[in-house]
Amino acid sequence: MNDVYLWSAILLVTLATLVTRSSLHLLGERLRLPASVESALRFAPACALAAIAASDLAYTQNVLDLSLDNARLIAGLGAVAIQLGTRSMAATIGGGMAIYWLLRWLA
Fold this sequence. Notes:
Blueprint: H1 3-27, H2 35-41, H3 44-58, E1 59-60, E2 63-64, H4 71-86, H5 89-106
Antiparallel strand pairs: 1-2
């Protein structure tokens, strides 16, 4: 890989990111999204974070592991149950970590 190719790739990726992320700001009021699209976009960051976390919990060493031996998956499911029961972020994080540590200690 030569320097011209590398710098061209960096420049093009930067340009693509700049255009896609700033297009709505640059167009301003001239482009209005429908209300249904705007309301759906509010959930995009949470969905992206959930997808990242779910894949980290379900995979062990790049292999899908949905067994009861997967301590991270069991702790994640426990954290979801705690969140649904308490609606407390601190309880969710603390409880999920406590479950994980307990499962690792028992294994």
